[in-house]
Amino acid sequence: MPREGLGPQRAYDVVLVGATGFVGALTAHYLAEHAPAGLRWALAGRSRGRLEALRAELAATDPAHAALPLLTVDVADRDAVRALAENTRVVATTVGPYLRYGEPLVAACAEAGTDYVDLTGEPEFVDRTYVRHHERALATGARLVHTCGFDSLPADLGALYTVGLLPRDVPLRVDGYLRTNATFSGGTLDSALTAASRPLAMVRAARERRRAEPRPAGRTVRAPLGPVHHSRAVRAWGVPLPTIDARVVARSAAASTAYGPAFRYRHFAAVRRLPVAAAGVAGFGALAALVQVPPVRSWLTGRRGPGDGPSPERRERSWFALRLVGQGGGRRVVTEVRGGDPGYGETAKMLAESALCLAFDDLPETAGQVTPATAMGERLTARLVRAGIGFRVVSEH
């Protein structure tokens, strides 16, 4: 249910910021098709003309959307961003790279007691917003929920689902193995290269967060990178993925005793052949080195513009599957989270359903910067299942 004090006096239930970007437009179309009756929502972005064009697209499918409110907002305009946050119950934003554009919205939502969801996979941004805005959000009741797209809902909710099938009150280990054939957009490329180009800043932000964040009392939670190895459970080589996913899972585990007294999560790409696994490790290392050189990073970023992305036909052929191998108390369970195009179609679906979940579902009382599993957990999983993303048990022993 909506929290007391955030109801009718606010004009909107959900405002989608960055609605005219590649993923933003997909999210707008998803909301237009699946929003519950009576949802008060609006599109926000910098260009009035592009917002009007998007609204016309939505109205062509359903004339009721011809009156959809449009909010012209530049995320660098702190006064405009503050007014937006004060006038809605949930802000959903696709405006990245979040390191460059994201903090004013987080700050405004923390101050206004407004729930916030985004698609970031940028560890430095998540750590910095925790240090700077978690305490204020705790005081106002705002829920700041990052990583509500392919980074990191499959891993976070998949680990929660897997843990629920294992014995309680025993040490637990979960390893995730990801397969996908998807491609990426210009905005995603820009975000990834921005994050990869700042290793020292990322380390400093993580250190500041560790100093500020309390540790779980009497429990241990770890998210090591893990070695290249062959997993018989998934019949593939596991190549460590240094993404934000494992950190998000670990933070969910730190917040809940359901993950046991000692919990470990590791995140891998699943690769069939060893030479491909070795090439992947070498390629990532080379890319991480190259993006430290500004001209090279600019050239790579310019390969795709921020509004570019895969065609509808390419997205239709795309898929992902995350296998999770959980062990503890003498039991082993293998689960799977599976869906279509991960970076765009399914990510738009995940962001929209996360915003609707915060706006309307009966959820645990949380506040501050919290993970998707902590804030929404099984309620969001149920929404994603109804939306066509699969959660299933592959085997149990």
Write up what this structure looks like.
- With 397 residues, this protein is of the alpha/beta class.
- The chain contains 16 helices and 15 strands.
- Strands 7, 8, 9, 10, 11, 12, 13 and 15 form an 8-stranded mixed beta sheet that branches. Strands 3-2-1-4-5-6-14 form a 7-stranded parallel beta sheet, with helices on both faces.
- Helix 6 links the parallel strand 5 and strand 6.
- Helix 1 packs across helix 14 (345-360).
- The two termini are 39 Å apart.
Give the number of DSSP strands. Answer: 15
Query: Low-confidence parts, pLDDT < 50 over ≥5 residues?
Result: none
Shape: globular
Mean pLDDT: 89
First-to-last CA distance: 39 Å
**Structural class by helix and strand composition:** alpha/beta
Topology diagram in text:
Blueprint lengths: L11 E6 L4 H13 L6 E5 L2 H14 L8 E3 L5 H9 L1 E6 L4 H4 L1 H10 L2 E4 L4 H18 L2 E3 L7 H11 L8 E9 L5 H11 L2 H14 L7 E3 L6 E3 L4 E5 L4 H10 L7 E10 L2 H17 L3 H8 L10 H6 L2 E9 L2 E9 L5 H16 L7 E2 L2 H4 L1 H10 L3 E7 L1
Parallel strand pairs: 1-2, 1-4, 2-3, 4-5, 5-6, 6-14, 7-11, 8-11
Antiparallel strand pairs: 7-12, 9-10, 10-11, 12-13, 13-15
Helix pairs in contact: 1-14, 3-5, 5-6, 6-9, 7-10, 14-16
